[in-house]
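Progress report, Aim 2. The chain analyzed during this reporting quarter is listed below.
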Amino acid sequence: MSLTLTTGLIIAIAFVLLFLAVLTTLSDGLVKMAAKQNGQDPDSFGVLPNDVPSLMKMRKGRPNHVPKDANFVALKRGFNIRLLGEAKEVLDTEIPTVQSSTYAIKPKDFIGMMPIPKVVVGEGDNIKAGDVLFYDKQRPEIKYAAPVSGEMLRIQRGEKRSINEVVILADKEMEYRQYDLPDLNTVSYEQLSAFLLESGAWPFIRQRPFDTVAEHTMPPKAIFVTTFDTAPLAPSFDLTVKGREAEFQKGLDVLTKLTAGKVHVSVNANEPKTSTAFTNATGVSKHWIKGAHPAGNVGIQIHHIDPVNTGDVVWHLDVHGVLVLGTLFTKGIFDTRRVVALTGSEIDEPRLVYAHQGICIENFVANIPTKEEVIHTNKEGEAVKTIRRAVRLVSGDPLTGTQIDEKGYLGFFDDQLTTIAEGDYYELFGWLVPQTGHPTIKKSFPAGLVKDVYYKADTQQNGEYRAFVVSGEYEQVLPMDLYPQHLMKAIKANDYEKMEGLGILELGEEDIALCEYVCTSKQPLQKILRDGLDMIREQG
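Predicted structure tokens for the chain:
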């Protein structure tokens, strides 16, 4: 009898606790909703104190290192892919400067450029850093400049005589083009934009929608600068700007002259310490962003701060672009030097280096066996040797980067070389085997339950292309008020009206890359999105 009473008492207590937990959670949610409707930060209000765990969750709220009067955005969705091979952060004085014999600018890095731009230098010509190399025939006002001085070596052509690379044989000692700088205090928008177009600095400014190089005839309603990158293995911009704080501020000053709206600078709230170049920036509107990847993507930040609506144009840059503008106006030179991360589990020593834009990666991967011999038996029982690729080299991060070969060049906007093992093997029973070898948001692998574990990446797809039917996956990792799966289907159906209504103009490939990573159907979402954006852009 006593056992029955004890059991009943335990059940009753459990029900009471459950009722209180549900009531508290609902009350907390209502208070947050009221705060949001009144224009307040929801994370600053609630039934529960910030430092007291509830029965359902732990409220983290605004970190202590975020200024109380700063605009704070906490993103609830996202996913950090933790991979082995991250370059360890060191003091800026410990980062070596590396050089290559050749550098290249690749026209295909620029969305919408004609496959055969007009090259204005010939093979054998001597050029200085900042001299114009080529321009797009559709937009001849925008000039693309040499990142280093040297000799024009060759024009590397591809299919149908398209230009893949414009290659420069670099000097050992850098020579810079001299500029007649306008006075920032008196310069007009037309004068400043004309100077930037001719100087070669303009291509660092991109726009949403479409993520193309900015259209100078359409001044933006706002300009965004993101100061952190949450992509896998990405380097920290804190080191890039170390010792160049004055140039960064000058670059922001230049940007304020290019818009009648605000210049928004997004600061990393995930870290307690970040560069004072970002936190103490003046003349701009600062926003503290907290969350997992893709919190560092400028598209996510635009969505939560000043969204792109139909007819709007917003420009954006990363820290490298701001420094190019700032150095141009402080030192009068076109300087593309940046911190580059050599990353991935297949590189001998993941590390950070200083390098100029478009550097050849040949020396970085000299000791990596990118190809290997494989012996197999043919139908006649004979041993046959074949050569297969063992390591994939990626210019950029693993989610959005471009595959290059051992003598390839870093992309125009890239500050990362990633090495990934090729995954051309079969996995017995696949996800049925209990193992932790795959970073995933699913609970099919124990990795879905274990946090902060680092994994060795390979290119294995872990599944085949299949029907586009699974719902709710993309919304788990995309911190935007969109329906990405419905958008992708609208693009495949060529439904222009639905594309725009579902928010395609707010997106770039990097924003949807994580959705592609978690996609059960293995859909090429980045390609689908680009096809949709190109369709709308061509329609005008």
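The chain has a mean pLDDT of 89. Residues 15-61 form one domain. These observations will guide the mutagenesis work planned for the next reporting period.
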